[in-house]
Amino acid sequence: KKIAVMTMTLFPVRLLFAAFMMLLAWPFAFMATVGRSEDAVEPLSWWRWLVDLVLKAIMRAMWFSGGFHWVRVKGRPALPSEAPILTMAPHSSYFDAIPVTMTMASIVMKTESKDIPVWGTLIKFIRPVFVSRSDQDSRRKTVEEIKRRACSDGEWPQIMIFPEGTCTNRSCLIAFKPGAFIPGVPVQPVLLRYPNEMVRISSTPKQGVSLILWLTLCQLHNSIEIEYLPTYTPSEEEKKDPALFASNVRHIMAKALGLPIIDYSFEDCQLAMAKGPLRLPRHTCLLEFARLVRRLGLKTGVTDEVLHEEAFKVRKLCGSRLDVEGFSQYLNQPLTEAVQDIFSLFEEHGKMDVREYVIALSVVCRPFRYLETIKLAFRMFEAQEDGAVVEDELAVVLKTALGIGDFVVCDLFRAIDCQDKGKITFDDFCRFLENCPDFVEQYHCLHEPIPQPSRESTSPSSTNGFCADFSPRDPSTRSAAHSKKQD
Hints:
Pathway: Lipid metabolism; phospholipid metabolism; Phospholipid metabolism. Residues 451-487 are annotated as: Disordered. It comes from Sinocyclocheilus rhinocerous. The protein is α/β, with parallel strands linked by helices. The protein contains 20 helices and eleven strands. It has helices spanning 2-8, 10-33, 46-65, 97-103, 119-125, 138-150, 209-218, 236-240, 242-257, 266-273, 286-295, 304-315, 324-331, 337-346, 354-365, 370-381, 391-402, 406-416, 426-435, 439-442, and strands at residues 71-74, 85-89, 106-110, 129-131, 159-161, 187-193, 224-228, 321-322, 352-353, 388-389, 424-425. The strands form three sheets. It has a seven-stranded mixed sheet, covered by helices on one side. Strands 8-9 form a two-stranded antiparallel sheet. It has a two-stranded antiparallel ribbon with strand order 10-11. The longest helix has 24 residues, at 10-33. The chain starts with a helix and ends in a 45-residue tail after the last helix.
């Protein structure tokens, strides 16, 4: 009843006032960006300083109209010369833009954003680092641009980065991406807190952006707290190892927030949220596998061409199984605990089929392209004369890629092999998928008993609301699965 009343009274007024504030800010931002170079920074003239002040006031009025009447700030913001990069967490909502508009710090955004009417002009004013999705070399260029600005002795505005790389529900801190830490310069950790009791201001699949916007604007008062922690200066070891730098900063921020940390990343969130008939089952060890290959750097530079080369190399083994030493040599990695952990996910009777490793690697590197993974798997298993696989081989493919149990494959294989040839091709599988797109449910592929995760192998349903309970074949034999708090 209260929300209904607010929807009819407060909500439209706030929405219109916020839109008016954005339109009011546009001419000031447009005036300040005309004739300004994107590659060089000019000395801050008096009138641009004045425009900056006016825009901050307008943006503050916009947030005030949305119910953010008081913004509590703790700690001292560092100067650009002291900390060129601000690392902010946890990232959970579009309202995280509040500290951006308060500081007018630069952020990392996709190139397409600058073409949005009105909003695009406001974005260009803060001089963001643009990322192009169409440019395959975009990641390297983005890192180089961040390094160039970070090493300018305070000439460029500070860069505010959300190192988690995606929105979470604020129940933990996921793995930080290394972009903010590669330059090896001092960073200032910035914490965000939303002490709302009525509405959780977080954009998760269960609470979409529109729903969050509506509920927030219907609430009489919204709270936000921004805390600036002391500047963190990296050691020489951390400068050489951005992953270590990121991990140490994350531990400091998690301790200050009172939150647990988990070793899953943005890519793991994508892997867990893949939809469609070919999707990640809840009871899979692929998330643990993804964490391990990332830890060893095995995902770096893995493209479609690399995966095809791996498949061709593995096919030459003709199904030969490797022990842990042979697998270590195959990876060209020393026999570390992480290599043994990966091996334990696939081994049976002390040996493993490397084709399973390549299938799993394809899944974690291409989480939304399962059909291409199945095609790659068929190429590794198929007979040379007719390009077909038998039932046992299909069982390995589906078990590794989709988590489908062996006892389901028998009925599934008979349904695909309608001519009773005793073997099927990838084209046969595709035709079956077209006729039965919901085969996962229809054949009860995911109705196996879900093992209860142990204390050592619990994955919290934290990032974007996903839940993926993985269970390695023998988790008690390895210490790689860290203890994590269940959300």
